[in-house]
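Morning. Coffee machine broken again, so started the prediction first thing and wrote up yesterday's gels while waiting. Chain of 254 residues, entered below exactly as on the submission form.
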Amino acid sequence: MKKLWNSFITAFAMYSKIPMPKADWEKENMRYTMCFFPLIGVVIGALVLLWSRAVLWLEAGPLLRSAGFVLIPVAVTGGIHLDGLLDTADALSSYQSRERKLEILKDSHAGAFAVITACVYFTASLGIWSELKGEQIQVLAGGFVLSRSLSGLAVAVFPGAKTSGTVAMFADAAQKQWVKFCMYLLMALAAVYMGIINEKLGRAALLGALGTFIYYYRMSRKQFGGITGDLAGFFLQVCELVMAAAVYLAGKLF
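Came back before lunch.
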Protein backbone atom coordinates (compact mmCIF):
# COMPACT_ATOMS: atom_id res chain seq x y z
CA MET A 1 0.00 0.00 0.00
CA LYS A 2 2.87 2.38 0.77
CA LYS A 3 4.30 1.80 -2.73
CA LEU A 4 0.96 2.75 -4.30
CA TRP A 5 0.67 5.85 -2.13
CA ASN A 6 4.19 6.93 -3.05
CA SER A 7 3.45 6.32 -6.74
CA PHE A 8 0.31 8.43 -6.43
CA ILE A 9 2.27 11.27 -4.81
CA THR A 10 5.01 11.03 -7.45
CA ALA A 11 2.48 11.24 -10.30
CA PHE A 12 0.83 14.36 -8.92
CA ALA A 13 4.12 15.96 -7.88
CA MET A 14 5.61 15.40 -11.33
CA TYR A 15 2.66 16.24 -13.55
CA SER A 16 0.68 18.81 -11.56
CA LYS A 17 1.07 21.82 -9.32
CA ILE A 18 -1.26 20.33 -6.71
CA PRO A 19 0.57 20.35 -3.34
CA MET A 20 1.64 16.85 -2.33
CA PRO A 21 3.45 15.32 0.66
CA LYS A 22 7.10 14.54 0.12
CA ALA A 23 8.05 11.16 -1.36
CA ASP A 24 11.48 9.89 -2.33
CA TRP A 25 12.00 9.70 -6.09
CA GLU A 26 13.25 6.16 -6.00
CA LYS A 27 12.70 3.44 -8.58
CA GLU A 28 10.48 1.55 -6.15
CA ASN A 29 8.21 4.59 -5.71
CA MET A 30 7.84 5.08 -9.47
CA ARG A 31 6.73 1.56 -10.21
CA TYR A 32 3.04 2.45 -10.53
CA THR A 33 3.30 6.20 -11.15
CA MET A 34 1.75 6.04 -14.62
CA CYS A 35 -1.30 4.26 -13.19
CA PHE A 36 -2.20 7.46 -11.34
CA PHE A 37 -1.30 9.93 -14.08
CA PRO A 38 -4.84 10.01 -15.63
CA LEU A 39 -6.30 10.98 -12.25
CA ILE A 40 -4.86 14.45 -12.81
CA GLY A 41 -7.26 14.53 -15.76
CA VAL A 42 -10.11 13.84 -13.33
CA VAL A 43 -9.14 16.96 -11.39
CA ILE A 44 -8.95 19.05 -14.57
CA GLY A 45 -12.27 17.69 -15.83
CA ALA A 46 -13.96 18.44 -12.51
CA LEU A 47 -12.65 22.02 -12.57
CA VAL A 48 -13.83 22.46 -16.16
CA LEU A 49 -17.33 21.34 -15.17
CA LEU A 50 -17.23 23.63 -12.13
CA TRP A 51 -16.16 26.57 -14.28
CA SER A 52 -18.97 25.84 -16.75
CA ARG A 53 -21.41 26.30 -13.88
CA ALA A 54 -19.60 29.31 -12.43
CA VAL A 55 -19.72 31.29 -15.68
CA LEU A 56 -23.49 30.95 -15.71
CA TRP A 57 -23.68 32.44 -12.22
CA LEU A 58 -21.20 35.17 -13.20
CA GLU A 59 -23.01 35.80 -16.50
CA ALA A 60 -19.56 35.85 -18.11
CA GLY A 61 -19.11 36.56 -21.79
CA PRO A 62 -17.79 33.99 -24.26
CA LEU A 63 -14.20 35.29 -24.14
CA LEU A 64 -13.83 35.02 -20.36
CA ARG A 65 -15.70 31.73 -20.40
CA SER A 66 -13.44 30.10 -22.99
CA ALA A 67 -10.28 31.61 -21.44
CA GLY A 68 -11.12 29.74 -18.24
CA PHE A 69 -11.49 26.44 -20.09
CA VAL A 70 -8.15 26.95 -21.87
CA LEU A 71 -6.21 28.04 -18.78
CA ILE A 72 -7.51 25.50 -16.24
CA PRO A 73 -5.30 22.65 -17.59
CA VAL A 74 -2.28 24.97 -17.65
CA ALA A 75 -2.91 26.08 -14.08
CA VAL A 76 -3.28 22.50 -12.81
CA THR A 77 -0.25 21.10 -14.66
CA GLY A 78 1.99 24.14 -14.46
CA GLY A 79 2.42 23.97 -18.24
CA ILE A 80 4.67 20.90 -18.18
CA HIS A 81 2.95 19.37 -21.23
CA LEU A 82 2.83 22.72 -23.03
CA ASP A 83 6.61 22.89 -22.67
CA GLY A 84 6.82 19.58 -24.53
CA LEU A 85 4.59 20.90 -27.30
CA LEU A 86 6.81 23.92 -27.85
CA ASP A 87 10.10 22.01 -27.69
CA THR A 88 8.75 19.50 -30.20
CA ALA A 89 7.58 22.29 -32.50
CA ASP A 90 11.12 23.69 -32.54
CA ALA A 91 12.61 20.25 -33.22
CA LEU A 92 10.19 19.34 -36.02
CA SER A 93 10.61 22.74 -37.66
CA SER A 94 14.39 22.42 -37.73
CA TYR A 95 14.38 19.73 -40.45
CA GLN A 96 17.67 18.50 -38.98
CA SER A 97 18.91 14.95 -38.42
CA ARG A 98 17.29 12.75 -35.79
CA GLU A 99 20.21 13.28 -33.42
CA ARG A 100 20.02 17.05 -33.80
CA LYS A 101 16.26 17.03 -33.20
CA LEU A 102 16.80 15.17 -29.93
CA GLU A 103 19.36 17.80 -28.94
CA ILE A 104 16.86 20.57 -29.68
CA LEU A 105 14.32 18.86 -27.41
CA LYS A 106 16.80 19.19 -24.55
CA ASP A 107 17.56 22.85 -25.29
CA SER A 108 15.95 25.09 -22.65
CA HIS A 109 15.74 28.05 -25.04
CA ALA A 110 12.51 28.72 -26.93
CA GLY A 111 12.95 29.18 -30.66
CA ALA A 112 10.83 31.19 -33.07
CA PHE A 113 8.70 28.21 -34.01
CA ALA A 114 7.92 27.51 -30.34
CA VAL A 115 6.60 31.06 -29.95
CA ILE A 116 4.57 30.79 -33.14
CA THR A 117 3.17 27.42 -32.07
CA ALA A 118 2.16 28.80 -28.66
CA CYS A 119 0.28 31.69 -30.28
CA VAL A 120 -1.45 29.43 -32.79
CA TYR A 121 -2.29 26.80 -30.17
CA PHE A 122 -3.88 29.21 -27.69
CA THR A 123 -5.72 31.09 -30.43
CA ALA A 124 -7.16 27.85 -31.81
CA SER A 125 -8.06 26.59 -28.32
CA LEU A 126 -9.71 29.85 -27.36
CA GLY A 127 -11.70 29.92 -30.59
CA ILE A 128 -12.90 26.32 -30.35
CA TRP A 129 -13.79 26.44 -26.65
CA SER A 130 -15.76 29.67 -27.20
CA GLU A 131 -18.10 27.67 -29.45
CA LEU A 132 -18.63 24.75 -27.08
CA LYS A 133 -21.47 24.40 -24.63
CA GLY A 134 -23.61 22.00 -22.64
CA GLU A 135 -22.97 18.36 -23.42
CA GLN A 136 -19.92 19.21 -25.52
CA ILE A 137 -18.13 20.57 -22.45
CA GLN A 138 -19.28 17.63 -20.33
CA VAL A 139 -17.91 15.17 -22.88
CA LEU A 140 -14.55 16.95 -23.09
CA ALA A 141 -14.24 16.89 -19.30
CA GLY A 142 -13.74 13.14 -19.74
CA GLY A 143 -11.26 13.79 -22.53
CA PHE A 144 -8.62 14.95 -20.03
CA VAL A 145 -8.65 11.44 -18.57
CA LEU A 146 -8.64 9.79 -22.00
CA SER A 147 -5.65 11.80 -23.26
CA ARG A 148 -3.59 10.95 -20.17
CA SER A 149 -4.56 7.29 -20.34
CA LEU A 150 -3.31 7.12 -23.93
CA SER A 151 -0.14 8.97 -22.95
CA GLY A 152 0.50 6.54 -20.10
CA LEU A 153 -0.16 3.60 -22.41
CA ALA A 154 2.42 4.95 -24.85
CA VAL A 155 5.06 4.95 -22.11
CA ALA A 156 4.40 1.24 -21.58
CA VAL A 157 4.20 0.12 -25.22
CA PHE A 158 5.98 2.63 -27.49
CA PRO A 159 9.75 2.48 -27.99
CA GLY A 160 11.75 5.19 -26.26
CA ALA A 161 14.03 7.49 -28.21
CA LYS A 162 16.61 7.61 -25.41
CA THR A 163 17.84 5.47 -22.55
CA SER A 164 17.71 8.49 -20.23
CA GLY A 165 15.11 11.16 -19.48
CA THR A 166 11.65 11.24 -17.92
CA VAL A 167 9.94 8.67 -20.15
CA ALA A 168 12.89 6.26 -19.94
CA MET A 169 12.92 6.65 -16.16
CA PHE A 170 9.25 5.81 -15.74
CA ALA A 171 9.25 3.12 -18.43
CA ASP A 172 12.17 1.39 -16.73
CA ALA A 173 10.57 1.61 -13.30
CA ALA A 174 7.02 0.81 -14.41
CA GLN A 175 5.29 -2.50 -13.86
CA LYS A 176 4.26 -2.44 -17.49
CA GLN A 177 1.53 -5.06 -17.35
CA TRP A 178 -0.19 -3.23 -14.49
CA VAL A 179 0.27 0.10 -16.23
CA LYS A 180 -1.30 -1.24 -19.42
CA PHE A 181 -4.19 -2.75 -17.47
CA CYS A 182 -4.84 0.53 -15.64
CA MET A 183 -4.60 2.60 -18.83
CA TYR A 184 -7.02 0.37 -20.72
CA LEU A 185 -9.41 0.43 -17.77
CA LEU A 186 -9.31 4.22 -17.43
CA MET A 187 -9.63 4.65 -21.19
CA ALA A 188 -12.72 2.47 -21.13
CA LEU A 189 -14.23 4.36 -18.19
CA ALA A 190 -13.57 7.70 -19.90
CA ALA A 191 -15.11 6.44 -23.16
CA VAL A 192 -18.18 5.09 -21.34
CA TYR A 193 -18.62 8.38 -19.47
CA MET A 194 -18.43 10.38 -22.71
CA GLY A 195 -20.80 7.99 -24.46
CA ILE A 196 -23.35 8.25 -21.65
CA ILE A 197 -23.29 12.06 -21.87
CA ASN A 198 -23.74 11.98 -25.65
CA GLU A 199 -22.92 8.99 -27.83
CA LYS A 200 -22.31 11.02 -30.99
CA LEU A 201 -20.03 13.55 -29.31
CA GLY A 202 -18.27 10.86 -27.30
CA ARG A 203 -17.52 8.86 -30.44
CA ALA A 204 -16.12 11.97 -32.13
CA ALA A 205 -13.82 12.70 -29.18
CA LEU A 206 -12.65 9.08 -29.06
CA LEU A 207 -11.91 8.95 -32.79
CA GLY A 208 -10.02 12.24 -32.56
CA ALA A 209 -7.93 10.92 -29.66
CA LEU A 210 -7.17 7.59 -31.36
CA GLY A 211 -6.26 9.33 -34.61
CA THR A 212 -3.82 11.58 -32.74
CA PHE A 213 -2.40 8.54 -30.94
CA ILE A 214 -1.65 6.82 -34.26
CA TYR A 215 -0.05 9.99 -35.60
CA TYR A 216 2.01 10.28 -32.39
CA TYR A 217 3.37 6.76 -32.82
CA ARG A 218 4.29 7.19 -36.49
CA MET A 219 5.75 10.67 -36.09
CA SER A 220 7.83 9.81 -33.02
CA ARG A 221 9.27 6.68 -34.67
CA LYS A 222 10.06 8.43 -37.95
CA GLN A 223 11.36 11.75 -36.62
CA PHE A 224 12.94 10.78 -33.28
CA GLY A 225 13.26 7.00 -33.16
CA GLY A 226 10.79 6.76 -30.27
CA ILE A 227 9.09 8.85 -27.62
CA THR A 228 10.49 11.23 -25.03
CA GLY A 229 8.96 13.30 -22.24
CA ASP A 230 8.67 16.30 -24.55
CA LEU A 231 6.95 14.24 -27.24
CA ALA A 232 4.53 12.92 -24.61
CA GLY A 233 3.65 16.53 -23.76
CA PHE A 234 3.25 17.31 -27.45
CA PHE A 235 0.84 14.42 -27.84
CA LEU A 236 -1.24 15.42 -24.82
CA GLN A 237 -1.71 19.01 -25.96
CA VAL A 238 -2.47 18.10 -29.57
CA CYS A 239 -4.80 15.29 -28.51
CA GLU A 240 -6.90 17.59 -26.33
CA LEU A 241 -7.11 20.23 -29.05
CA VAL A 242 -8.11 17.64 -31.65
CA MET A 243 -10.78 16.21 -29.35
CA ALA A 244 -12.23 19.69 -28.79
CA ALA A 245 -12.27 20.33 -32.55
CA ALA A 246 -13.85 16.91 -33.22
CA VAL A 247 -16.60 17.50 -30.66
CA TYR A 248 -17.30 20.96 -32.10
CA LEU A 249 -17.54 19.59 -35.66
CA ALA A 250 -19.69 16.66 -34.58
CA GLY A 251 -22.10 19.08 -32.94
CA LYS A 252 -22.32 21.08 -36.14
CA LEU A 253 -22.39 18.33 -38.76
CA PHE A 254 -24.48 15.54 -37.20
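The chain has a mean pLDDT of 90. Going to sketch it on the whiteboard this afternoon.
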